Amino acid sequence: MTFYARLRQNERRRDSDELAACIERVVNQLEQETTTGDRPGMLLGKIQSGKTRGFIGVIARGFDHGFDIALVLTKGTKTLSAQTVARLNADFEEFINEDELLVLDIMKLPGKLTRSELKRKIVIVAKKQAQNLERLTDFIKNNAELQNRRVLLIDDEADLASIRFIQKRGNVDMEQGKIAEKMDALRRMVNDIAFLQVTATPYSLYLQPEGYETSLGNRDYIFKPKKPAFTELLPIHAGYVGGNDYFSVFDEENPRARLYVEVDQKEQDSLRNQDKQRISASKILDNSNIVGLRRAIITLL
User: Fold this and answer.
1) Which end of the chain is less crowded, N or C, counting CB atoms within 10 A of the terminal residue's CB?
2) Nearest in space to 37 (alpha carbons), one of 145, 197, 202
C-alpha cells in the first residue's frame, strides 16, 4: 500500500475524497517541467482550514511519486516550528516506527546520516530564519548524497519573509533579503527539486513578475522566480467557520446572522478614553458603556 493510502486511513485524518483529489492534482502538477524548482506551485487555503494537513498529504503522495526528501520551511517562530515537527511525527508515526521515514528538526540534526537513514524518506523542518536556513544548506552539503535526491520544498506561510528586495541608496542593483536569498541558494544546490508555496494570503506572490531578469532592467540578476505556475484550492471541511460565515449577509432565521455584532460608536469612544467615570472597575459587570465588550468576553468564556 502506498504512503498516502496508508496515511489517509490514519484515524487522525480520514481524508475526504475532495482532499485526496486536491493532493493528487498538486503532486501531478509539481512533476511537470513548468513547476520545477524554477517555478513554484501554490496550495491556497482559507485561514485555519487545514493547510498543514493538506501539505502533509502532499508530502506522502510525493513520496509515492518518487520524491525522497521533503524540506518544510515554517514561519519564523519556535512555537510554530515545534508544532509542525510534532504534527509530522504524529501523522507519520506508523512510517517512523517501521523505519521507513525520518522526521528531523533543523535544531536537532544528527550530523552525518547513516546508510540506514539515507535509505529512508526524510522530512526536515526549519523555520524561516537566516541561521536555520544556513544550518539546512550546510547539512545538505555535509550529506552530499542528498543533493542528488528528488526534493520537495514546502514553503508554509509562503508570503511571509520569502519575498523581499532591497535597493541601497546610490546603488542601481537590487538585492534580496537574507531569508529570500538563502531560500534561493537552497533551490540552486539541489539537482531535482519541486517547490510548493502554502498560504491563505497569496497577494504578494501573485504580484511577482514571471521572471526577474527582464523586469529589472535586463541586468544579470539570479533571483529565482516566486510567482506560482499553478494554484490548487484546498477544500474546506463541513465544520469550517470562516470569513464568509461572519461577514456575509444572512436572513434573520439563519444562525450565522448573529455571529457578527457591530460595536456601537459610543462604546468605541468609551474604550478609547481613559476617563474612569465612563468605565469604572467597580461597575464593570453592568456598565452600559461596554455592552459589546462584555458580551464578547462572556461568549468567549
Assistant:
1) C
2) 197
pTM of the complete model: 0.82
Q: What is the pLDDT tens value at each position of the chain, 301 positions in all? A: 899 999 999 888 889 999 999 999 999 999 886 555 568 899 999 988 899 999 999 999 999 999 999 999 998 778 888 899 999 999 999 999 999 999 999 988 887 888 899 899 999 999 988 889 899 999 988 888 888 899 999 999 888 766 656 666 666 555 556 788 888 888 888 888 999 999 998 888 888 767 665 444 544 445 667 788 899 999 988 788 888 888 888 888 888 888 878 888 888 887 777 665 556 666 667 777 778 888 888 888 8
Q: CA 87, CA 101: separation in Å to the nearest integer?
A: 14
Residue 128 exposure: Cα atoms within 13 Å on the Cβ side: 24
For cell 465588550, name the residue. Answer: 293
Distance between start and end Cα atoms, the chain = 46
State the alpha helices, DSSP H only, in the chain.
3-8, 17-30, 51-64, 78-91, 93-97, 115-118, 130-142, 178-189, 203-206, 212-215, 243-247, 265-272, 291-300
Count CB neighbours of 269 within 10 A: 12
